[in-house]
Amino acid sequence: MQLKKNKVHRVGAIALALFGVLIVSSLESCINRPPSSCAYRSRCVNDHAVKECMSDDHGGVSETVFQCPEHFVCANGGCQPTLGYCGYSSRCVGNAVQTCTDAAQAGQPVTETLSECGQAFLCVQATCQAINSIEEVCLVTPEGPWAACRGSGCAVCAEKVEGYPLYFRRRPGCIPNTTCNGEYFSCRTGCTQPTSDDRCAPPAADGWAGCFGDSCAVCSELVADFPNYWKNHPWCIENTQCSGAHTTCTSGCPAPTDDDR
Fold first, then answer.
1. Please, which of 75, 98, 138, 229 could form a disulfide with 93 given CB 3.0 to 4.6 Å?
2. CA–CA separation, 125 vs 190, rounded Å?
3. How far is CA 87 from the centre of its chain?
């Protein structure tokens, strides 16, 4: 009888040990499971390389490292031109074309000019184009490889560009779509994947406390009496939900002045 009891105890102990192994194995599987979302969007690997992370539609992530081009250094998670070099020749800023000329000598400021497009024109691909509809501007471009639109190749799913507040400002032919419901189709080539340029610059050390949520999201109530503020500061976006909370803005979004009236 005692032998039978000992045998039962041994069998029970073995079963309990196996159960413990299964629990530990399951926990390790959960802990070591590949990440399903990015812990960051982009970051500097060194002074001349950037690593970007993108989440896909199947719960996985992919990381890509790329080198900054000549005359660029990695700063704030993106490739930034060194002082004296533009990094671009012309681009759309709101509904205006901004052009840049490198400094004659490295280390000197560059020369930038801003030319507004007329009322019947729209800035697309760094030129003022005469066209009646924003939708038409996008539709004249072919389909691209990026699957992030629905309903139209110009209707970019808002969740695909979350964290890039300047995305639509820099692509006036693209419009936000908040009803994609997880279904994504090819965008037009005018609506490209977001880059680090679509993020706000970091808050300035001595910046104006007039933003909230992001360093270029200016609280609308603070510039309500300055109707030209948005025109004079095209890299700033309007935030109508500050509710009295204000944080530091980037240097490109300063406090309004009489020139903004």
1. 98
2. 8
3. 19
